[in-house]
Write a structure and sequence with these properties.
391 residues, 14 helices, single chain
């Protein structure tokens, strides 16, 4: 029974690290790229993600066996290969993506609460969540997040199911005009898809915490990613077919008001509230490592740092209120680097002399895919964010 419970919690942690409110911007992603281009890109990103996590783990295990050390974080792997610069690069990307997602979560919480209580301003709706988030950010260990993670999964899954039922109901009334391919929106889709699959920063930490059973981990990872891809696909396509070009970057904003839909919104609010501390964890870990000297660990200092981080995410959320574009920018900037580029670079660097020519070509292709997607995605989403701010 105890083993089963551990297996279950490990699975929910992996699943949770890959699935967050980013899923809710997938219909918007499909609206940007068209359904045909979206489907192809989604499955490509999913396969490449799964492959790259395994490359990274292969590198991690190789280094651990060779040097008899324990590599607990992404940054530690980077440092082992490229010294201090390696750690800086990994940690920078990790902080940018996780911090960006936390800002996205607050944008999402703000808009959803505002749609429930239109008389309150968006800024106020974001500010309301700051006190509970600060308290949750004070939790120290990732395994202690298990119950929060579990609650978030339950509420997120329930609200997905309810959302999907609602979308299917809407489709019955006829579908609006949809595009197969919209070339200009493909970079936005790339950014959103990359961030929807961005669990790699947390996955290393989770894999380390279940090191007594490494083989089980890859099986759990495959099952999680397969399930998540199907979820993203179904939810994204359904949302797009329901609202067409009018799909909002936060799909719940498209929903009319009604007791049933308000319940869905409340469930999503709770789910995201409990996801936030999990996503902020890597940021607090890295920031504390830089700001708090070993041996001088004061609880007050840690809590001050964590409070400042939560306040910084809230300020960003108030400054850039478009969820879809924010997620796309973060996905292009950090997620592509962490999920595609760095694992392939590390793998090539360590094993180059023993790799078959075909595998070398494949690694180079993955790096190219990541770099091109990242640059174009960043430029396009930044341009759209600036245009929105002007309006």
């Amino acid at each position: 029974g105890h083993e089963r419970a551990k297996l279950f919690f490990d699975f929910t942690n992996i699943f949770k690290s890959y699935i967050g409110s980013n899923v809710l911007s997938l219909p918007f992603a499909f609206a940007c790229s068209g359904w045909g281009a979206g489907v192809i890109l989604l499955f490509t990103v999913s396969l490449v993600t799964d492959h790259c996590v395994k490359l990274l783990l292969r590198v991690k295990h190789h280094l651990e066996t060779k040097d008899g050390c324990d590599l607990e974080t992404y940054g530690a792997i980077g440092e082992k290969i490229f010294h201090v610069q390696g750690r800086y690069i990994c940690n920078f990307c990790l902080i940018v993506t996780q911090f960006g997602f936390c800002c996205g979560y607050l944008v999402f919480l703000g808009h959803t609460l505002h749609s429930l209580f239109p008389r309150f301003a968006y800024v106020f709706c974001v500010a309301v969540f700051v006190p509970p988030l600060i308290l949750m950010a004070w939790i120290r260990r990732i395994r202690n997040m298990g119950p929060f993670s579990f609650l978030a999964n339950v509420f997120l899954t329930t609200s997905f199911v309810l959302c999907t039922i609602h979308l299917v109901d809407c489709i019955r009334d006829g579908t609006p005009h949809v595009d197969t391919v919209r070339w200009t929106g493909i970079p936005i889709f790339f950014g959103i898809a990359a961030s929807a699959f961005e669990g790699i920063g947390l996955v290393i930490t989770i894999e380390h915490s279940i090191k007594e059973d490494r083989n089980r981990f890859t099986r759990l990872l495959d099952v999680s990613l397969l399930l998540i891809t199907c979820l993203l696909f179904a939810f994204g396509i359904l949302g797009y077919l329901t609202f067409g070009r009018d799909t909002e970057s936060v799909i719940t904003v498209n929903f009319a008001s009604g007791s049933y839909l308000n319940l869905v919104k409340v469930f999503i609010l709770i789910a995201i509230l409990f996801t936030y501390p999990m996503q902020l964890m890597p940021v607090t870990d890295v920031t504390e490592a830089y700001c708090v000297a070993e041996g001088h660990e004061s609880l007050l200092k840690r809590r001050f740092i964590r409070t400042c981080l939560v306040l910084a995410t809230a300020s960003t959320a108030i400054a850039i209120p478009n969820f879809g574009l924010l997620v796309s920018f973060v996905g292009s900037l950090g997620a592509a680097m962490l999920a595609f580029i760095l694992p392939s670079v590390f793998h090539s660097y360590i094993f180059w002399s023993t790799l078959r020519p075909l595998i070398r070509v494949k690694n180079v292709l993955v790096i190219t895919f990541g770099v091109c997607g990242a640059i174009i995605g960043m430029v396009v989403s930044m341009r759209d964010i600036v245009e929105e701010l002007k309006q």
